TrEMBL record:
Listed transmembrane segments: 21-38, 84-104, 116-136, 173-191, 196-216, 228-247, 268-286
Key word Nucleotidyltransferase present: no
Protein keywords: Membrane, Transmembrane, Transmembrane helix
Extent of the signal sequence: none
Entry protein name: DoxX family protein
Length: 432
């Protein structure tokens, strides 16, 4: 009978050097996980973030001598200059620490126990991260259905990232498919016996995410690539066994992933703690998913005046403007979109250029405050009237001009992307 394999008792120099580097690098990259989830940790880690916010610009200025100052700090983009310089700092710190570690600990035969705990650490980090992204797809809050503004935007004016978001947002079923891949893969990582299967699923899932991020210029390239790197590292423990089974057609005995023996009481206590942690994580993601879905999802309440409007007549400073396609001031369409708590107004001019604004309607006073998102110093108040359900009149001072616009509601169901639906049978390709 084949005996379970264990980690090798003697590591070669390359294995030990590589482990030391990746141990330090991964700890630096994922920190403050898991401490950031502890109550009262926010203040402590604000100091940690402030330290990096000071160090990274200094490295960019004094060490790398970048031609510009780093003033953009971590935000919705994960591929800022700050992120690249910080990643370089992680690599340099990991190299320096691994060299010092190698000198001080050069006689150690192996790092089996430390490897075990590093893999456990990465398994939980990847699992909880995949839960975050997976449930965001299940509840369809990461990729909602294309809004009215997106439906009115010509393909040629869409950014590559916007095109990817439209592609993903169109199909609820595809969101569920990709989300379940992330959740199932992450869930399997939480158990030692299914770690390899979970890692294989996530390599395919995260690999697809990395490809989309690079091919559609989505600014999460660094983060997704590091998630893929962590998944590959987790799978290396089973590398030889998988090569034997999948490539060499050889038998592969089971791998004993536990570097130490434990008592029954310890195992029961560990199982109880693990159950609580996983239960709380699932509850948190499901609760947040339902909550977020009610605010941003496809079923979230729409704002007042929501709809797509064609401009029937438009007057500027008392002069009625004819709908001439070269006019850069006359409105052609108005789109009120977004959600009840986050409404937006987009004006499409006769030249097809779009101007987007924050829209704050007051249904009692029948007026609305309109302003550019990053220009709160200039706010405009427009009065509106609803003569009937399909007509909207807006008037007031807007950007130093007096405007009057009579709008006619359009039916969004007229868009092919909205009304085409799913067909089991297609006698001919329907590629429009």
């Amino acid at each position: 009978m084949n005996q379970p394999l264990i980690y090798p008792l003697q590591w070669n120099a390359a294995q030990k050097a590589g482990f030391r580097f990746f141990f330090v690098y991964f700890i630096l990259y994922v920190f403050p996980f898991p401490f950031g989830h502890l109550p009262g940790s926010n203040t402590l880690f604000e100091y940690y973030s402030d330290a990096w916010n000071t160090l990274v610009p200094w490295v960019g200025r004094a060490v790398l001598q970048l031609p510009y100052e780093i003033t953009v700090f971590p935000n919705g983009s994960g591929d800022t200059t700050f992120n690249y310089v910080q990643l370089l700092c992680f690599v340099v710190l990991a190299l320096v620490a691994s060299v010092i570690w190698s000198v001080l600990d050069r006689n150690r035969a192996n790092y089996n126990t430390l490897l075990y705990w590093l893999v456990v650490f990465l398994r939980y980090y990847l699992a909880f991260t995949m839960f975050t992204y997976g449930f965001a797809k299940i509840f369809k809050t990461q990729f909602p259905f294309p809004n009215l503004t997106r439906l009115m935007q010509p393909y040629g004016q869409s950014s590559p990232m916007g095109l990817a978001w439209t592609f993903m947002g169109y199909s609820t079923a595809y969101n569920w498919f990709t989300g379940l891949g992330e959740i199932i893969g992450g869930g399997l990582l939480l158990f030692r016996r299914t770690t390899a299967l979970g890692a294989i699923i996530l390599i395919a899932t995260i690999g697809n995410i990395v490809a989309i991020n690079f091919c559609f210029d989505v600014p999460v390239k660094l983060y997704s690539s590091n998630l893929l790197l962590m998944t590959l590292f987790v799978l290396t423990a089973e590398g030889k066994r998988l090569i034997n089974v999948l490539l060499l057609n050889r038998p592969a005995p089971a791998l004993d992933l536990t570097p130490f023996r434990t008592t029954r009481r310890w195992r029961i206590g560990r199982l109880a703690i693990k159950t609580v942690i996983i239960g709380l994580a699932l509850y948190s993601h499901i609760f947040d998913g339902f909550s977020t879905m009610k605010q941003y999802g496809d079923l979230a309440p729409k704002p007042p005046l929501y709809g797509l409007y064609e401009v029937e007549s438009f007057a500027l400073n008392g002069d009625t403007l004819a709908p001439i396609l070269t006019d850069t001031t006359r409105w052609r369409q108005v789109i009120v979109a977004g959600y009840r708590n986050y409404p937006s107004l987009t004006v499409r001019l006769m030249t097809d250029s779009l101007r987007r604004y924050v829209f704050e309607p007051d249904t009692v006073k029948l007026n609305a405050v309109v302003y550019a998102r990053f220009d709160t110093a200039h706010k405009y108040r427009l009065a509106y009237q609803r003569p009937d359900t399909n007509t909207l009149i807006m008037k007031g001072l807007f950007r130093k001009d007096s405007i009057y616009a009579r709008l006619k509601r359009q039916n969004p169901e007229r868009f092919l992307l909205v009304n085409r639906g799913f067909h089991w049978i297609n006698e001919y390709p329907f590629n429009r």
